[in-house]
Structures are given as C-alpha cells and as structure tokens.
Queue: 4 jobs
Job 1
Amino acid sequence: MLKVLKFGGSSLADAEQFRKVAAIVKSDPANRYVVASAPGKRFAEDVKVTDLLLECYRLARKKEPIDEPFEKIETRFRQIIADLGMTLSLESEFATIRLVIKNRASRDYVASRGEYLNSMILAEYLGYSFLDAEDAIYFTDEGILDMERTDESLKVLLSEADRAVIPGFYGSMPNGTVRTFSRGGSDITGSIVARAAEADLYENWTDVSGMLMADPRIVKDPEPIPCITYRELRELSYMGASVMHEDAIFPVREAGIPINIRNTNCPEAPGTMIVSSDEMATKPPHHVTGIAGKKGFSAIYVEKSMMNGQKGFGRRVLQILEEHGINFEHLPSGIDTMSVVVNTAELESEKDAVLAALQKSVAPDKIDVFDDLAMIAVVGRGMVSAHGTAYRVFKALARVDVNVRMIDQGSSELNIIVGINAADYEAALDAIYKEFVK
Ligand code: ADP
Ligand code: ASP
Ligand code: MG
C-alpha cells in the first residue's frame, strides 16, 4: 500500500495545523509522499502567503519597496518554525528570494515561493526528504504540463527517495524558469505525484469533511458526498465547487487511482471517495449528487429566421468568438435562435468587436447581450435512470420565484444547467438543495 497526501493551505497555515498534519502522516507507514501548499488563511480576514507574494511581485514591478508584505511572509514562516520548536533557519532563503524579487523575478517564480518554503519546513519536521518540484514537474514551451516527461523524471526521483515532501503548484519550463499552475494548482501536483508513485490512493486533505453537496458558504451545513465519480466531480468543480482544482482529475483518472478528500481538522470523518466509474461508485444517497454554480456569465443571443436551414451558421458564430480569444461555456439553441454563454470577463474588452463581426458574418435579425447571469449545474449519475429531475429543479425555482433564463441539459445526461439572474443565485442554489435533500 502506498499513499500520496496533499495538504492545502489551511491545513498548513500555522504550527498547530502542522502538528495535525504530522499526526496524520505518521499514522500510517503507507503515507510516503506528501505534497504541500503555501500557508493559507488562519482566520477569515487573514491573507494567504501566495497573495502576499503576488503583492510583492506587483510592487516590485512598479519599482516600489516590497518590505512590508515580504516581512509579513518572513514572520509567518519564522513563527511556524519557532512554534514547532525547530532549529531550521530559512534566513538565507529569505534573503535570496527578496533579492530576486527586487531584481524583477517572474510572476510565477514569486508566486511559487510559498510552496517552496513551506515544504522545506514540513520535510524537516517530518524527517522526510525535500524534493523540489522544479526538478520534477515539467511544462512544455506552450506552458502546458508535459505529462510524459514529468512522469518519467518523477518516477526516477521518487524511487530514490523513500519518503519525501514535494512542493505543490509549480514546476519548470524547458528553459529552466519556474512556471505555476493556475490558482489552487497544488491539487494537480498531488495528482501527478500519485500517478508517478503508482499510489493506491491519493488523499487530498483540506478544511471540509469532503466534497459537500453544495457550497457551504451559501447553503447551511450541506451534506458531504460519500462517493462521486470523476466525471461528476469534474462537472461540479468546473461549475465552481472549488474544493479541488478541476484539472487535478486527469493524471490519476488515467491511472485509475481513487481520490479521497479528507478534513485535516476532523481526520475521523471518511470524507469523499472519488472513483473512476459508475460501477465502482456506491449508491448515491440522493437523487442528485451535487449542485454547484457560478456568477459572471453573459449570453450572446442571436436570432435569425430560417437559421436552421443555413449551413455553417453556428460554426461562423463560434469562429468569431474563437478569433477574439473567447471560450464558450454553453450553447442552448432553438429553431431560429442561438445563445452563446460566455464569461463576462472574457467578453468585456472584445464586446464591440465581436458584435460587429457577428453582424458582418451572419447578418442576424436580432442580436443582444445579456449580462449578470449565473449558471447552476445539478449533477448526478443517478439522473439517467431516474425521472423528473428537471421538473423538480423548476419546481424548486418557481417556489422561490426565480425566473429561469436558460436551460441546458448536458449531453452527458449527467447534469442539468440552468441560467438565472445573478441576483437570484443564492436563493436558487438553496432552493434546489432543499428540494433534493430535505
Ligand atoms: P485547500 O486550501 O485545502 O486547497 P480550498 O480552499 O482550495 O482548500 O478548498 C476548500 C474550500 O472549498 C472549502 O473550505 C469550502 O469553502 C469550498 N467549497 C466550495 N464548494 C464546496 C463544496 N461543494 N464542497 C466542499 N467545499 C466547497
Ligand atoms: N498556494 C496556491 C494558491 O493559493 C496554490 C494552492 O494552494 O494550491 O493558489
Ligand atoms: Mg485548494
């Protein structure tokens, strides 16, 4: 048995959390590889070390002094070391990093230093080797993960280290410079390490007792999901259930390694098991597995009579978005109408150009952009066989007087997505949860 454990920022935010982590790691000899995040928030108004580092980067770029945020970072690490009663000194590391930031280090290098320093402390505290992600995780020139090279090099490095701590969140580019994943990316590192180590299990330790059926910041005490498939989890995490990075699934999915989301503050809770197929999953306790959503969407609504008869209409609409670097999220369409749901932030600066190009290319009868949309996804592997899911979603929304602006039944039959006004988001999420759980 071999396990890879990833601890998130809140699990490593201070010395007390480090002690919990050490107790968890030491409880089982199978716990050989540990991936660590940078110190996260200790309390609600606290600032994550990664955010302090990004503040240093921002100041350095403007040639302003970085002393204030940098000293906060140093203090946090010094305090963890002192409170753990360790003799380790990171002073020379601090001096180097401070100097490199002042000399205009890249954003990714700066952002990665929290994981780097925290992992050094954790490695020493556990008595494990420190294995720098810079020498183990590789990106291509395009900045995407080079899975093959990474897997190969990691396998060698892991075979040489019986027990090791690996910093999450970053790796290196072919030219040797540091590159990070997007925010929350330590989850991806954990998954990559689990795959290379051919682990039996990837444990992702955080501050909630598993993936919950809905966002706990909106729904009060949502039930944990005992078991979820990779596909369901991906749908939910993409739609904003941010407990795990949505890209963390791929490396372990191919290798068939299950993920167990666990709570560092409540290690006795079983958490959520994420498994590769419906056959491996246990029977879901409710009709739906989970509900997630996001605000910040816009719909580009295009109307043209006889649209369906015009070959290439949809393609031309999507091509224009592509030419302006905008991804589309959903594509509900009718006979003479088509809506393209996009991220408002992506559309904003390109809006006028996109609308002009659409006019020119497809000459619609009508074209409109609706902002302030929220999308909610109701996800469940049980939906294919059960009836009436959509009916219950609409009934729940009608009960709290929420107007449905758009409906998209995912082609996977795994989800139903509804578009509503952003102002209704919280009430809608709560109502749908209550419909299926209570
Ligand atoms: P970590 O620092 O351990 O990586 P994150 O902050 O990235 O942890 O993710 C855990 C947080 O995700 C929880 O504290 C919770 O607020 C949030 N969250 C949002 N949606 C969900 C959900 N459906 N289930 C569990 N947690 C969720
Ligand atoms: N520390 C990084 C962040 O805050 C990466 C992570 O926590 O996974 O985004
Ligand atoms: Mg996270």
Note: The first strand starts at residue 3 and ends at 7.
Job 2
Amino acid sequence: MSQRLTINQNTKPIYDIVYESDFSKLAEELEKFDIISKKLCIVTDSKVEGLYAAEVKNALEGHCKEVKVFAFPEGEKSKNLDTVKDIYTFLIENKFERKDMLIALGGGVVGDTTGFVAATYLRGVDFIQIPTTLLAQVDSSVGGKTGVDFDQYKNMVGAFYMPKLVYMNISVLNSLDDRQFYSGMAEVMKYGLIKNASFYEWIIENMYEIHDRNLDVLEDMVVKSCTYKKLVVEKDPTEKGERAILNFGHTIGHAIEKAKNFELLHGECVALGCVAAAFISWKRELLSKDEYYEIRDMFVPFNLPISVEDINPEEILQLTTSDKKMEGDHIKFILLKKVGKAVIDNTVTKEEILNGINEIYFSEEDWDE
Ligand code: GLY
C-alpha cells in the first residue's frame, strides 16, 4: 500500500492519486492544501454517508476550520441539476467561500456531480475525490470529467475540472455488494481490451484473487487501470482525439442504461456495449470470429451480462444517435483492432449498430430455439 501516481499536463504535475488501505493519511495529504484555514464540505450520497462520512469527518476534524456533510439520495437519478442546486443552496447557507474545499465521497454519481458543483460554485472552488466504488476508483475519479445528466441525455452538462487530489482507500472495495463490484470490473476489462493485451491476460490469470477481493491484487489492478487512464488523459485531457477510446462500449452501453431506466448498473451496460462493439469489429474483419467469442465470453466469469432482455433494438439505436458522441451525422464509435488496440471510427453505419444491438438482444424467439 501507500503507492502514488501523478497526473501531469504538459509535463507539469496537476494532482496526485494516492493509494492507501484506510483513511489515516487523509488529513496529512490535505494539509498540503493549507486546510487549517478552510471549511470543508463532504458531499456524499445516502448510502455512503452511513458507511464512511463519520470516519472521514473525524479524520479531518481539528485539521481544518470546520467540516460539514451534505448527502443526497443515492443513485443515477440524483445526477441532475436539481441535486446541483441543492448543493449550491447548502454551500450558500453555510457560507462557503471561494477558498474553501469540497470533498466528493462516493461513487461516480457523487464524484461527477460534486466535481461539477466545484467547477461552477463561485466560478470554481477546490475539490478532492475520495472514490468508494471500483468503478469510480478505476475510471470516473481520474481525468477531470465532471457533470450531470440532462433529461434523457447522459453527462450532457459538465466541465473538465481537475481535482486537487484523488485519495483511494482500497479497503472500501470490501464493502461493495457483488453487483457493484463486478460492475467496476467492466471498466477494468475495458483497459485491457483497448490498451494492453498483457493486462487483459493478467486480469484473467488473477480471476480467483479478484473474486476473493484479495486487497493486494485489487490495489495492483486499480493502480494498473489508473496508469492506463493516465497515459490517455495526459495526452488528451479534453477529449479532442485519443481520449475517446475510453468510451469503448459506452455508446450502446449508455443507450441501454437509459432505456432500462438505470435498472442495470453502468458497468453491466458497458459490458453489453463492449460485446456489441466487438461484434461490429468482427463483422468488419478487424477481429476474427474466435477473438470476438473469446472477448464476449470472458465477461461471464466476472458476472457481467453478455445479453439483455426486454429492450427495443430500434429504441436503443435511436438513443445511441442522441448521445453526445455524435459529430454531425456521424457517431464517433470505438472499435477493436485486436485485444489491446482500439480505434476511433466515424464510418460505422446505423445498420451496423443495429446488428450489434441485435447480437446482444435476448428476445423471446431465442427461448424457442
Ligand atoms: N470515462 C471516460 C473518460 O474519462 O474519458
């Protein structure tokens, strides 16, 4: 434990990601930002509040001017401008000033929403991320994407805004229920698929340790995942180009997430989206048939879905084209050339996308076969 990665921009260090096994180093890390003169607001959700808010508050009390806690109802349905307004109101009522600091304690919804508030409240206040889900640790807390959903559009309103620090307590991964944990595994597998075949092999070789939530292996896995993310976001922090490969599986995944009214978790939808995108890659002869089936079937031992019932493929197609990954009439689609190598493609047709959706759609007719 006690590892550290630094995210740089133009060779200038921007923020550190620290990996610990508890919250005991949090105050020491934050003292570097002169918190003795600052008020801190821990923003969290109703679930994480009960698990970690008191512990984090206690760890910080006495090291800063004051610590407040604001919690909103858990779940993707809270990721909207109403929650942003509630947080602004709390900050205004509690007289938070520009020099004060927000702490996002929770999963992706908490991190993205709090980050957006930090980017906009008083034209920007400092914030740090304390991600408490695997998904947030390996993906959403790193790279400075913040924002909320708007009507049916996911992550439609937001800002690139960097945290001052990402503090990861790896042991929190033990408190996740299985579904949440494996949802995060979809993003981990994504890094192997898009960036590094050896890491993909490593995940498979360490499958049993991962199932057992061996903390040393999980730390290794989280650090490796963040290292791949670091490589991408340092080169392209605002997604002008290469960063889009991180959206592998997300175009169709986001559409399913929305169509299913968030009944399925983000990572479950990403796994489905990865299968559909790998299918399209096979049909374009970028992947072989065997490679496609191996990629598809490897989600199964990680308890991730490779097919979905009760969807309308046409509706999913329609939702993919209202995604913010559109460039004019074209969708920026991520395909695989091989395990470990993703490519951005602007020529994928609606018909190909529909074929990909049909591949993962488990319909009543499939029962009869
Ligand atoms: N989650 C994708 C990205 O940060 O770009």
Note: The mean pLDDT is 96.
Job 3
Amino acid sequence: MTLERFESEYLIIGSGIAGLNLALQMAESGKVNVISKTNLDETNTNYAQGGIATVTTESDSFESHINDTLMAGADLCHKDAVEVMVSEGPDRINDLIDWGVNFSRSKESSDYELAREGGHSVSRIFHVKDFTGAEIQKVLLERANEHPNIQLFEDYYAIDLITDHHVLGNLQAAFNICFGAYVFSKNDRKVHVFRSGYTILATGGGSRVFQYSTNPETSTGDGVAMAYRAGVRIANMEFVQFHPTALYEPGHRLFLISEALRGYGGIIKNLDGEAFVKKYDSRGELAPRDIVSRAIDSEMKKRREDHVWLDMTHLDHNKVRQRFPKIYEYCLKEINVDISKDPIPVVPAAHYLCGGIMTSLNGQTSMQNLFACGETAHTGVHGANRLASNSLLEALVFSYRISEKLKTKLKRNFDDVLIPEWDETGVLNMDEWFLIKHNLKQIQSLMWNYVGIVRSKQTLERAFRRIKLIYEETENYYQRTKISSELLELRNMAAIAYMIILSALRRNESRGCHYMKDYPESMDRFLKDTII
Ligand code: FAD
Ligand code: SIN
C-alpha cells in the first residue's frame, strides 16, 4: 500500500514561537507545512510567563542589554550573535504588536509596563501580565490558521530527518543534504514521508530529561536527537539551566513561579524565614539564575530542607494579585496558598537547554537545506547560562533571519529525488510499555541525581556508564519494534541524556550552569564550545 506523502517548499517541525513566526514570515514565498507532535499549542512557548527582553527606552541601551547577556553567559556567549539578537529585538517585538499581541501597559502613563528579572540591570521586559507565552501562542496560531499557504499538522511526530543515507541509491554522490523528514501520524499510526526543499527544526527544549522540570511533557529534545543521528553538529549540551523557583508541590508537574516575582520585590527565605541569597551573591534575588539556583540548592542541602520560601507578603496585596493573576489563581486553587498573604514554597527545577544544534547567524546548520531555531538551536547567544527572557527574543530574531535567508534561495521541493517509504519489515508490535516507562524513569532520576545543579567527575562517570547501557538497549529495542510516540520519546531522551553527560565530562571546570564540585573554578583553556 502506498502511503500518503506530503510535499512543500518548507517543512517546519514545531509550532511554538520559533516555528510559527518563521511560518508566517515564509507564507508568501511558498507552501509551508508545520507539524507538531501533540496539540499545536502544547509548547514551551505556551507556558512562558515572564516575557521578552528588549531595549526600547531612553534610560536603556543596546550596550547594556548586550553586557547583561554576556555577563550571565560567563564568557562563553558569541558576541556577534548577542549583538544581532539585541539590536534586532525591537523590530521583532513590533511585529508581535502589529499582529495583535497585547503587551501590558502601565495604568498611569499607558506606556508599556516593563518588568525586571535576574541579571538585567534595568526594567526591559515586555510581558502580558504573567501569561506572556499563552498570548503569543494564541495570536501566532490564529494567524497561521488563517493563511492559505500554511498547513498545520497536529499529532504528527517527526522520527528522523531524510538525508543522503536514505536516498543514496538514487543520487550520484553524497551531498550532506536534508530532504525532509519521516513523520509518524498518531491518527492513522503510519509513518509518512514529508518531502521538503528546506527543513527547519523548531522543536523546543529537552528539560524533561530531568526528573523535576518546569517544562511540559513534550519537551524531550527531539530536534537535537534527530540532528545528532543525522550527523549534524551539536554544541554545549552540558549547559542546562535550572530555574530557581518552581512551585514545591510533591507529586505534581512543577508549575513555574516566574522570576518576575523576584523582579517585583519577592524575597527568598529559608524555612526559619531568613533571607539568604545575598550571602552567596551581593545582587541577591536578582543575580543570574545559575547563582540563585545554587544558593537555594546549597541552603536546602545544608539545612536538610525540602524547599525554601518565596515571600511576597511585604508587598501591596492587591497589586500582587493584579500583576500575577495566573500564578495567584494556580497557587490558591492547587495548594491553598494566597501568594499575596502567604509565603510560596519553591524549589529549583530543570528549565532550559542552553546548548543545541549549532547554527550560523542565519540559522544554517552543518547540513545543507537544514535550519534550526528557537530552544533547539545553539546560536551562541546564551553561552554558559541564559539571561532571563532572552529565549523568546532569540527565537523571534533568529527565525526571522532564517526567513530572510530562505527568501534569497532557490525554491525547490526535491520532486526529482526518489525517497523510499518507511521500512517496517521485521518489526514486531511488542507490548512492552513497562520497559519504556521503566527506562524513562531511570533516565530522569539518573539525570536529576547525578547530572543536576551540582556535579562531580565521579557522579558524571557513573551516570555515563548507565546511560550508555540504556541508550544501546533502547536503540536495539527501537530497531525491532513498531513505532509509538512513547518509544520515540524514550529514544530521543536517551540520546539527549547521553549528549549532556558526554559534554559535561569534557568540561573539567565550573562555568555558568555547569558546576563541578571538584573543579569549582573557571579556566581559560575551557573558553570554547563543547562540540559533538
Ligand atoms: P516550543 O515552544 O517548545 O515548541 C516546540 C514545538 O516542537 C512544539 O510544537 C512541539 O510539539 C514540536 N515538536 C517537538 N518535537 C517534535 C517532533 N519530534 N515532531 C513534531 N513536532 C515536535 N523564555 C523567555 O524568554 N521568557 C519567559 O518568560 C519564559 N518563561 C518560561 C516559562 C516556562 C514554564 C518554560 C517551560 C519556559 C519559559 N521560557 C521563557 C523559555 C521559552 O518559553 C522557550 O525557550 C521557548 O518558548 C521555546 O520556543 P520554541 O519555539 O523553540 O519551542
Ligand atoms: C520566568 O518567568 O521566570 C521565566 C523567564 C525565562 O525563562 O526567561
């Protein structure tokens, strides 16, 4: 039986801010297929709270935003990429405003109300109260839905990129080109060919590889894993950012308590009610995230406590409720905490992948016709630690730059290349859900306990030995088994965990989010990216 094939000039894998912004920018230039492995709005973007950093006021400057970004990145940012991101930021915010994103304005002056977060020397963060991401996701999706050249595919799971390796029999030589992707449809449970002139990975992050994470379940690093299997260059996977304040709620997904609460005056306290972050860094609550997360981790371990408090109770109660309505509602409903009157129990949790698929300033990867943007990409802007609210900005700026690049390129869809159908000969429908679940839990707990906020050579080596076994076992199981989304996710998470540990083992120093107990200092000889 011949399966349905899908063809387009542009295939975008991912429907978050990076994928949808790019789709909207490209829609006048050709047919765009956008696929999402679950609901189109189940993205990291949708959960973003704090906002988007950009320079728009006279009291601020590009230089200041660049310096703050470089400082948070602990000498590993690519300065050219940071300059591009910061200087093109205001235009990209204007695109969102033109499309209808309703950023919060101050009641007094009707100017945009700019927030402050850790590591920023001034207030420069555009936000929609405390649900910035949901508003952006909604506006972008509505527009993409309306455009006749954009086709959106929900519940379509990209398995692997189609490369020379798959079509070599039909080509004269190997060219290191991407021709699209093999995609598993959860609707008909078949694997389809998505052929495309240009393929763009906008698959988001991978922080669900850790037991405790602020990310939705979809955040399993699929783009990085697919790129890795296709031989594409990956960088800096050791730098996983832990957010200092996720709601402590045993047994639940970790709901984020935005950094904007600390920007608004919130204070972190131990269970005796003592503020302690200033003991670790004079910038206190507004120091970069890696520092605040380590301070909390250290305090919790020293005092053998399960969480700390984030205290907003000294601030105007009404204003706190109005400024953070979603967080207020969530805490009241789920744990009966009124954030304006009670301290909030919080813990650090895995939040953001600073490394990823290496790209040029135009989003080009090391494979021809393959681009990457958003959290899955490594553009160089974050270095060893991302500055708060620079992620949505990076996704917007670099997806736009890809569109500018693609518009200068030859339009094509590779209809002259014979792409074989997905081959399932010999695979069995094994009902071994328990094995998948067990391995998944093992990876998450291994990563949290051995590869977390504080690492050591010994814990990393132990983790590496175990992950290698799981990785090999999963690959072997994958080769013999009929595709399911659970299996694909496990396979990708094993690959991501493997890359994070491998990269961490290569960096015998502490820098940004990578902290090694046995190498507590930064060293000049490690002033370079870790490339796989
Ligand atoms: P995402 O928005 O995560 O979208 C990924 C898309 O890829 C999804 O559609 C998914 O279905 C699809 N996908 C993945 N794998 C596959 C596959 N195999 N096949 C098909 N589709 C696939 N950053 C800020 O700058 N400011 C903030 O205030 C902020 N707050 C945050 C709060 C939370 C709780 C979290 C989790 C993150 C926050 N971040 C914030 C980070 C930021 O939200 C993300 O980095 C950003 O949204 C990533 O956008 P993206 O388009 O790259 O990916
Ligand atoms: C937050 O609101 O604290 C998240 C901001 C970010 O991840 O940049």
Note: The chain has 16 helices and 16 strands.
Job 4
Amino acid sequence: MKKRVTKAIFPVAGLGTRFLPATKSVPKEIMTLVDRPLIQYAIDEARAAGIKEFIFVTSRGKSALEDYFDIAPHLENELRKKDKTELLDVLKSTNMDSGAIAYIRQQRALGLGHAVWCARRLVHNEPFAVILPDDVIAAEKPCLQQMVEAYEETGGSMVAAMEVPADKASSYGVIDIKEDFGSMVSVKGLVEKPTPEEAPSNLAVIGRYILSPKIMQNLNKMKTGSGGEVQLTDAIDAELKNDRDVFGYRFRGQRFDCGSKAGFLQATVAFGLAREELKDEFGSYLSELMAMQQAAQ
Ligand code: UTP
C-alpha cells in the first residue's frame, strides 16, 4: 500500500543574492507578497495537501523565519485589549501546532539536493514533499494538493511541470518525456539547466516535488553537478536509472518566480488585484499608470 504524504521539506538555506541588499538581513522567504510572507503561501499550500510535519532547512541569518512561526503573546494581548478580533484571527491563522515544525541547518549552501539531504533523518522511510517557497502558485486547487491526488494513483516520484519558452529552458531542470498522458507525463530523463541544443523538451520542472525516500539514498552518493552544486534533479534522474518511476505533473495554475525581481513584481500585481479589498483602488491606479505611459509614448 502507498504511504500517505504527510511530511514536507522547505529548503530555505539559499543566499538569495538576487535580492541583495534586502536579503542581507531579511530572509527571502519573509519578504512580503501583499501582506503575507512568501513562506506563509507555501505553508498554506502544504496544509491544504494534508501535510502535518513541516521541515525547514535553514542557514545562518534566518532567525526571522523561526520567529515568524512562534506565537506573539505581547501582540496578541494588545490586539485583545483593543478588541481587534479580525486581526487576532489573521494572527491565529499563522499558528502552527506544537512540534509540527522542525529546523535543520544546512551549514554551507551546497545546492538544493544537499539541502534536501540535510533533512534525511527526519524523513525516515516515507515519501515526502519538497516545496520551494519562492515559486508561488496561484491556483483554484492548490498545486501540491493536485499533485498528492495524482500521486495516490501513480506512486513513484513526481515533479511539478510547466511548459516554458525554448529560450528559457536552460534556466530549469528539463524533462525528457517517455510518454505524454496530457496532465501527466512519464519521465525518461531529467537534465538540469541544459544548453538550448541539449534541452530534450520545453517541459520544465518547478518547485514542487513528491519524492520517494530512495531519493535520499541517491543523494548519499551525489557529487556536485551543474553550477558546482548538488542537484536534486540529478538525484531524481538516478531513480530512472534504477528503473523506478518518475512522473511530471502539469499543474493547473499560474506560477510566479518570486526568486527573481520581475517575478516578484508580477506576483505582487496579480495577488494585489485578486484581493477583494484592494482590487478597485489598485486596479484603477494600474489603469491610470498604463494610460499615462501610453500617452507619453
Ligand atoms: P535559488 O536557486 O533560488 O538560490 O534556490 P537562492 O540562494 O535562494 O537565491 P539567489 O539565486 O542567490 O538569488 C532555490 C531554493 O533552494 C534553496 C533556496 O533557499 C531556495 O528556496 N537552496 C538553494 C537551499 O536551501 N540551499 C542551497 O544550497 C541552495
């Protein structure tokens, strides 16, 4: 019988250099999309998918992230005194069950594969999810939930997949497709950041995974790959060499690369416009701005 996926790893030990100087003191995952830090979107998505244990792989300078998940007694008291029940509810929605979060340090940023491997003792022999919080996905049904439902049928390992323009494929792990079933493909191979000539397709892997615990054994033996880092893509590709199944899942939703400045700004606009209390004011501002820009051309 397939085991249920109840654990998720959140690798948040990267340096976030694309957001310097902000990330000198603020972890990227705490940066705010409208009014919530990126990590909150990732946690909400994991919860919707049935995740019960949240494993953060952190590094130096990420204490703001740990504090974010602590209760805030002083703030709560002040809000209670002022009868601000709505704000109290907002705070409560960020509370995590005692013992549901674990923090593991990745002492050196040796790559995503290495970050995941750092959590191996907490994963034991169970399938687990990996969520990269800087990939934010707007979807009617949260992306990881879609994947968990598909995984219940397939088992093996599964990566979230998305078509990208051919000239962008070299920024991603790219899928060599064995068979295409529409919303799902079976995978023949995975190539991390291929050159345009090497890219086997334009179906790219983005930051959601459901992985077999065998991946940890593959990572045990891993050497550094593309960019001098230990690549998670290579460890998943090694599953195929061992004749174990890997699937790519074409999720329904829009993914924003909040690890890049342009992606973060796009997400800010999209999520701002999707908020009931903001859409009128923010929407008319954007229309005025567009009109002014067109008039200036
Ligand atoms: P990125 O490739 O976006 O790297 O990592 P980064 O360091 O966060 O950001 P830049 O490129 O310097 O701006 C993708 C995800 O993998 C995690 C990151 O925290 C991010 O969630 N990661 C990456 C680790 O946890 N450890 C690593 O060694 C590398």
Note: The pocket of uridine 5'-triphosphate is lined by residues 11-18, 28, 57, 106, 109-112, 114-115, 132-134, 259 (CB under 6 Å).
